[in-house]
Structures are given as structure tokens and as C-alpha cells.
Design brief:
Layout lengths: L1 H12 L4 E3 H8 L3 H10 L1 H6 L2 E6 L2 E6 L2 H10 L4 H13 L7 H8 L3 H17 L3 E5 L3 E5 L2 H15 L7 H20 L6 H19 L17 H18 L5 H14 L10 H18 L7 H20 L8 H7 L1 H18 L5 H21 L4 E5 L4 H15 L6 E4 L1 H5 L6 E6 L11 E3 L4 H4 L1 H11 L12 E5 L4 H16 L4 H10 L8 E2 L12 E12 L4 E9 L7 H13 L1 H8 L4 H12 L1
Parallel strand pairs: 6-7, 6-8, 8-9, 10-12, 11-13
Antiparallel strand pairs: 1-3, 2-3, 4-5, 12-13
Helix pairs in contact: 6-8, 6-9, 7-8, 9-11, 10-11, 10-12, 11-13, 12-13, 13-15, 14-15, 14-17, 15-18, 17-18
Length: 616
């Protein structure tokens, strides 16, 4: 709540101390009721730091009472919760002894209660990096683990905190020197790295140098077998270490050299398919088989996808062997915008567990999702679109007009609108024809919809218009059930929210999805930012597609982020409109205003209006 209050004050301050409740809600991604409560419940805190928050007629204002106290408040709170977590993790990793929480509280200018609320998150992060979180009364807290795991954690949090480019001048100089050394060596040995991996490699080396200089050198070499030729990488690592020893006047032992080598191996980008191991191709084959079995999507004919995956998986397997984590700064965007690709990547990740007993984390799954999303787009573009047959007795000009209307309104290609004669219709294969539009009465049953248009097209086009809207615009509006639109639900946890939703779905559809939804959450949490979560079952084999939506009475912490809106879907692989439904959900999740407009008026009529409008 302290950080939310600061964000509210900051938002008002940068808006000349005045804003509407709606403007603040949109800017902060908080509900209007939450903002009202913050203003009401923080009067004492505001007075303590020299300001006052006012609200009247849905308008909020910031009043400064003591400029010096207010400036102190702004300085002390200019950290997000993520910033505080990063600070604490970094502080603990650099310490060889326990640190008292009271000391951290004073360093961060926050209350003990605020730090206590962060401790479960700190513990969870420590476990992710195989570090022990030790807490002792009167002593404080301490992170225990081997040097390699500490470095991986330290470097990844350093990378996350430096994504805005905010390096101190001294650090910039050091990073530049390391970059020059690395670039010279990898160019010499024809090693290729993409920009993100090169940046990460340099940061890992920077942290390694700092740890060596502070007396925390690595003394153990990971016992991992490398099956392919690494001559170039080994030579590059040796040259990099020699140059670093000269630059920093330090001794780099064999364990440290091996540490740099495994980062070169894990972050290198392969461009030549001929250097990929046979085991990697077998892995790709297994992935395609798993996706076909579970998702009913067949990628086996997509050579471009197979090649891209193989080139990506070779260094990925090394990262999994060495326990190297790969930062993915656009993970939430991928989850929001590439829903289908992410689900397929999640399915693919299970193959790594079965073949290599290795768990692929969310960041890596996100990178795989990009490849699958592009493959889905290729598949969609290559799919044969059904055609429309147009028969016109009044001349090709009228037929051309009908052709133009269909192209403009429903995004058909001109070549998909077939201008034919009645004679040609009699001999045509209609298997790929969606409907027939004719200016002549047709007395034969062709087994597909037939529409008659008079010479005055606009007056008789309404029936045709309704047909195309039904198949191209509103294919799944009938899925929206008033009984599964839940308003102002009072719950405190993700599990409780999912239980309430699944109980309602069970009541309506007689199917219990709770265990499958929680299984999916365990693999990768479904909050996607913008106060939205999009839970769904890991496996769903029932006939009917289910959509459900829920607006929470108060925001809750899902796993990492706050959530106020829940958009649930259960789509069987047999639903031919499944991809379109997922794309519609993705488009809603991308637009904060549209999302709020739908969720704040959670009625069948309004939801249908939003879904229908997106598909026009």
C-alpha cells in the first residue's frame, strides 16, 4: 500500500497536482475504489510528509503543506516493489554475514512491516537459484549457496535493474573495456551472439571480475559432459581471461575460465545447421509429435520452424545443463500477445523434462513461443480460404461491385471471389465454396447457402451481410453465458478466485476444471499485466468451448502481479475457431481501456459488443 500511495502521489504531482479518478485508475492500473480507499486511509501518512490528498466529485488533487518534507518523501519512495526486492537480493548476495531486517528497513526508508511482506518473495527467488534463505531471530537473514548460483542470481538481478541503461560512469568504463575484450576474441574465432546474449555475457563477466576482486573466486568446476566440438569457444575463453588478467591485475583460475567458457557456450547463437547435433533434431521431432498429440497442430512439414528450433535448442540444452538462466525482458508481452504460441511452447517444454530431466523456465518458454507464433502465422496465411461464387445476369459490372463489397467488408482476396456463369456453376466442384450469390433465381439445391440479389444491390444485400457477419465476425458470441459473468467477487488468493470460477463452470457445464487449471498455473502463472489474468486448463478434452469472466471486488496478488480481472477460456483442440478466440482474448488484453470498459460492465450485451467489435 505504501508503494501504491507513492505512485498515486507521483501521478498527481506530474499532472500539475490535479486529475480525475478515471485518469488515475488508467495510469496506475488500479481500480477507482482502491484509489478512493488509499486517499481515505492515508491521511496521517500524508500529513506526516507534508502533503494532503483531496477528492471531490470524482476529481483528485494534491496539496503541498511542507515542501521539504514532501521532497524527502518523494526521494525515499522512488523505488518500486521490484526495485526493493532487487536491492535486498543484491545486498544479501554481496554479504558474507547475516543482515538485520531493521538495517534494510532504514536503508530503504520503509517500515519493517513493508519488508516483512517482501520476505516470501525473497525466499521464492532464492529457491529458484538453488540458494538457501536463512532467517534467525536477533541475527537477521542470509542467503546460503555455492558461488556459481550466487553469481547467476546476482547477475540476472543486475541485468534486470540496468535495462533502462542506468549505469554509473565508472561502471560504464569497466563494461566498455570488457565489451572490447570480448568482441575482439569472438570475432577472431567466428563466434556469433545476438545483442541480448552479448549484453548478458558481458554482465556475467563484469560480475565475475567483481567477485574475484572481493575474494569470492570460484574453486569448483561443474562436472558436465560436453558432447560436441568446443575448440573455438575454448580458445576464445582463454584469450578473454588472459586479457582480463592483464587489465585488472588479477589471477583467473581454471574454474573461473570454465565459468566464462560455459557462458560462451550457453549464449552463442548458431547460424549453420550443419553444426547442430543429431540429438537436437531428435528433440525437435519429439516436440512436434507431442504438439500433434496434445494440441492437434501438425508442424512436421514446417522446415523453417524445425531449423529455427534446432538452432535455438542447441545452446538452450547447454544452459539447462549448466543451470544458466536466460533473462527475457518481454515475457509479459509474449504471454499477452502470443497466447497460442506460448501454450504450444509450454507443451514443448515438457519434452525437455522427459528427455533431459530438465525444467525449462518461463523466460526460455517465452523465447520458444516466438518461433511457434511465427509458424502459426505461416500456417494461417497458407491455409486455403473458402471462396464465394458470384453469378450475375446483368453484366460483369454488377458482379464486380459485389466482388468489391466482399473484399472491403470481409477482407477476402479478389481471387477468392469467383465470377462465373450459370453454366460454369453446374460443372464446378463446390467443396471449397462458402456460398453462392446470384442475380438469377436458382432452383437446384447445391448443399451450400444461396443468396439472391436484385439489380438494386444495396436493398437486398442485408441477408448476405448477416451471413458473412455470422461466419466471419461473431462465430463465438454464442459462447458468452450470462451465468459465467461474475461481478465484484470477494476473494483473497489466486486459488480462491480459480475455485469460485471453476465451481460456477461446474454448475453450468457439469465439468470440474479446477485441478487442470491449477496444473497449468503451476507450469507458468497466467497473469499478463494490466491487472489481468487469463487462466485456462492444461488439458481440456470436452466438446464445448467455455468462456467465463470475473471482476474482483479488490485486487489480489496472483503470483507476481496484481490482478483485478480474470478472463477464463477452455478451448478443445477440436474447435476450429479456437485460434480466433485466443486471438480475440489477446487483443482485449492489449488494450487497457477496452478491457476496463468490458469488465466494468460485465453483462452479456456489453461483452458481445466488445467481442463482436474486435472481429469486424
Amino acid at each position: 500500500m505504501e508503494m501504491n500511495l507513492y505512485q498515486l502521489v507521483k501521478a498527481l504531482y506530474h499532472r500539475n497536482s490535479k486529475a480525475t479518478l478515471k485518469e488515475l485508475s488508467d495510469a496506475l492500473e488500479l481500480s477507482e475504489n482502491t484509489i478512493k480507499s488509499m486517499i481515505k486511509n492515508n491521511k496521517d501518512t500524508a500529513a506526516k510528509y507534508g502533503f494532503k490528498l483531496n477528492m471531490r466529485l470524482l476529481k483528485c488533487s494534491l496539496e503541498l503543506l511542507d515542501v521539504d518534507l514532501f521532497a524527502e518523501y518523494m526521494r525515499n519512495n522512488n523505488r518500486s516493489q521490484d526495485d526493493r526486492v532487487s536491492y535486498i537480493i543484491t545486498r544479501l548476495l554481496k554479504s558474507d554475514d547475516f543482515i538485520k531486517i531493521e538495517d534494510l528497513s532504514n536503508e530503504l526508508y520503509v517500515s519493517r512491516a513493508t519488508l516483512d511482506r517482501l520476505m516470501p518473495t525473497i525466499k521464492e527467488i532464492a529457491e529458484t537459484y538453488r540458494l538457501g534463505f536463512i532467517s534467525k531471530p536477533k541475527y537477521g537473514i542470509f542467503l546460503e549457496g555455492n558461488e556459481m548460483d550466487k553469481r547467476l542470481c546476482l547477475t540476472n538481478y543486475r541485468i534486470a535493474s540496468q535495462l533502462d541503461g542506468s549505469l554509473q560512469n565508472k561502471e560504464k568504463d569497466e563494461v566498455s573495456k570488457i565489451q572490447a575484450i570480448v568482441l575482439e576474441s569472438i570475432r577472431k574465432h567466428a563466434l556469433f551472439f545476438n545483442d541480448i546474449n552479448l549484453y548478458n555475457l558481458i554482465q556475467h563477466i563484469f560480475v565475475a571480475i567483481k567477485r574475484i576482486c572481493s575474494g569470492n573466486a570460484m574453486n569448483e568446476t561443474p562436472n558436465v559432459k560436453i558432447d560436441h566440438d568446443i575448440q573455438n569457444e575454448t580458445a576464445a575463453a582463454e584469450e578473454i581471461c588472459d586479457a582480463l588478467e592483464r587489465e585488472y591485475q588479477i589471477t583467473i583460475n581454471d574454474s573461473e575460465k570454465y565459468y566464462i567458457l560455459i557462458h560462451l557456450l550457453g549464449k552463442r547463437t548458431f547460424q549453420n545447421i550443419n553444426v547442430i547435433d543429431e540429438a537436437v533434431f531428435r528433440c525437435v521431432d519429439e516436440i512436434f509429435l507431442r504438439i500433434k498429440a496434445e494440441k492437434n497442430i501438425d508442424f512436421r512439414g514446417d522446415a523453417e520452424l524445425a531449423t529455427s528450433l534446432a538452432l535455438h535448442i542447441q545452446p538452450l540444452l547447454l544452459r539447462l545443463q549448466f543451470g544458466l538462466r536466460q533473462q527475457n525482458p518481454i515475457l509479459l508481452q509474449i504471454k499477452r500477445e502470443m497466447i497460442n504460441g506460448y501454450e504450444i511452447a509450454l507443451c514443448a517444454s515438457q519434452v525437455f523434462h522427459e528427455l533431459y530431466s530438465a525444467d525449462v523456465d518461463e523466460e526460455e518458454i517465452g523465447y520458444l513461443a516466438v518461433y511457434f507464433t511465427m509458424a502459426l502465422e505461416r500456417m494461417k496465411n497458407n491455409a486455403a480460404k473458402k471462396k464465394v461464387a458470384v453469378i450475375c445476369s446483368t453484366g460483369r459490372g454488377t458482379a464486380k461491385l459485389i466482388q468489391y463489397k466482399l473484399v472491403q467488408r470481409y477482407k477476402y482476396r479478389i481471387e477468392d471471389i469467383l465470377l462465373i456463369s450459370l453454366y460454369e456453376l453446374e460443372t464446378m466442384d463446390l467443396a471449397n465454396i462458402e456460398c453462392i450469390i446470384s442475380s438469377l433465381p436458382l432452383y437446384k439445391d447445391y448443399g451450400i447457402p444461396v443468396f439472391y440479389l436484385s439489380a438494386i444491390i444495396d436493398e437486398t444485400f442485408e441477408e448476405v451481410d448477416s451471413f458473412f457477419k455470422s461466419i466471419h465476425v461473431s462465430q463465438h458470441l454464442d459462447l458468452i453465458d450470462e451465468r459465467l459473468l461474475l461481478n465484484d467477487v470477494d476473494c483473497k488468493t489466486r486459488e480462491e478466485a480459480i475455485r469460485i470460477l471453476c465451481d460456477k463452470i461446474k454448475e453450468v457445464h457439469q465439468v470440474d476444471l479446477y485441478d487442470e487449471v491449477m496444473k497449468r498455473e503451476a507450469l507458468s502463472s497466467t497473469e499478463v499485466g494490466k491487472l489481468l489474468a487469463i487462466p485456462h486448463p492444461y488439458q481440456y478434452n470436452h466438446e464445448h468451448t467455455i468462456l467465463a469472466m470475473m471482476k474482483l471486488k479488490k485486487e489480489i496478488k496472483w503470483k507476481y502481479k496484481k490482478v483485478a480481472y480474470v478472463l477464463f477460456s477452455a478451448i478443445p483442440a477440436s474447435d476450429k475457431n479456437g485460434v480466433q478466440i485466443s486471438e480475440t482474448i489477446a487483443r482485449i488484453s492489449l488494450d487497457s481501456v477496452l478491457l476496463k470498459n468490458m469488465m466494468n460492465d460485465l453483462t452479456k450485451e456489453n461483452v458481445e459488443k466488445v467481442f463482436g467489435g474486435l472481429e469486424e
